Amino acid sequence: YKNKNYIVLKGENEIILFKEDDSPLYLSSFVSKSYWKEKYDLYKKDYIYIDFKKYNQIHPERITIEYDDLTRIEWQGLEPTENGANFYMCEFDGINTYNKFKVTSTFFEEFKDVYFINKDNIKPYVEKYNARLAQEKREKEISDSINNSKLRLAKALYDMEFSEENSTINIHKGDTLAIFSYDPSREKFIARFQYSNLLLNPEKIHFLDTGMNLAPAQNPFASKETKKEQSKYSADEEYLRAKGEDGKEMRFNVAADYDDIQTAKFLNKLKSTIEELEKEIAFKKKNQIFLTGIGYEFDSSKYSNRYGMRFDVYNCFNKTIKYVEFTLTNYNAVGDVQRDDIGRSSRTVRGIGPIEPGEGGRYSWDDIFWDDRDVISRTSLTNVKFTFMDGTTRVFSGTTNIRKHMTADAWE
Predict the structure, then answer these.
(1) Residue 228 pLDDT more than 80?
(2) Distances (CA, A) of 250 to 23, 32, 176, 185, 236
């Protein structure tokens, strides 16, 4: 008997043994609770996942999902039936249980390892899950790299001056700056400009991508100006604030490349300006152009008819100018020499130097003549005398001759 399996029925006064292989017709009416309890304990231990995408049950979004398609299940008891047993279970997140449901033992036997997954058979799910994570990580790295390498530009709202070693860098209002980082400890942005890294106050720059945020201001009582200010938004500014030092090297390289091109353009333009200036200086020296500006100066009082003249002098000589004297003569409408109200038809005024070679100076007087009668039509420069520091002099006489030594735009 010991090599046979029996079903044992215990009554009050007797014990009946049934052989399993005899399969009597009435055996199906008996239920072995211990048999299904053993099955239940085995399943409860091993089948702790359900493929919720395949099994058409309610699946709450708040439940933690493991390996994309799987969620954990908790076994909550069994109930023997005439045809087997019902297994009660529910989804759970490790703490809370959700959506209790039941499956028959027949259904479970048919779909175990299809809907109900053994803990030892989740490798394909894990591999698929890890492959997806790796792909998402790579896509994020690519996206971050693209986003991080974007050039972020801002306009200077003010003139600014920075000292760099033995040089000075000037930023002018309206200059475009390549911003590549944010220093939270100093609360300043870092820009690459003319081969240098400069710290800039946020209120002194305006990011080019700045727009108006459609979200209304939080304070309903704010003024229109405040609401407008609150609604300004720059994605570039927020990105740099959030990133800080992270990815700074890549952004620096992008900003430096942009600055190299812009600075090269600036230096070429500066070089051209210097070359033009050198040509202009050479022309002035060759032709002895010493007057770059000339015009009338009037007394500030509206009741006065006194007037004088202004002269912009350029030292086109190789000596330092000590004094320069200007002789002025008045003429009326018909071209005759005309005296002013106190009888002066001509006057000589002196400007005091020194003016070094290649440098300039301005001299002005507003009370040389008095013309209350308004009879003076024009005043001409008829003589210019230069006295140099070594005691030598140069004199240029005659209006026509002096005009040869003026720039074309000298008269204003």
Answers:
(1) no
(2) 79, 71, 20, 21, 15
Q: List Cβ<8 Å contacts ≥24 apart for 246-250.
A: 247/144, 247/148, 248/180, 248/181, 250/145, 250/148, 250/149
Q: Distance between CA 234 and CA 218 in Å, rounded? A: 18
Residue range 107-120: average pLDDT? 94
Strand stretches in 201-358, DSSP E: 205-207, 211-212, 232-233, 291-298, 306-314, 321-331, 346-355
User: What is the dihedral angle through the alpha carbons of 259, 260, 261, 262, rounded to the nearest 10 degrees?
Assistant: 40
pTM, whole model, 2 decimals?
0.49
Which three-class secondary structure state does DSSP give residue 51? strand
- Element (DSSP H or E) covering residue 242: helix 235-243
Residue 282 to residue 273: CA distance in whole angstroms:
14
Asked if pLDDT for residue 96 goes beyond 90, the answer is no
DSSP letter, residue 283 = H
Residue 24: pLDDT band with limits 50, 70, 90:
low
Which residue, 339, 359, 364, 362, is CA-closest to 349?
364
Distance CA 106, CA 119 (A): 21
CA distances from 301 to 22, 304, 364, 412 (A): 136, 5, 17, 21
What confidence score (pLDDT) does residue 225 get?
Answer: 57
Angstrom distances, CA of residue 215 to CA of 225, 226, 228: 15, 14, 11
| pLDDT for residue 355 is more than 70 | yes
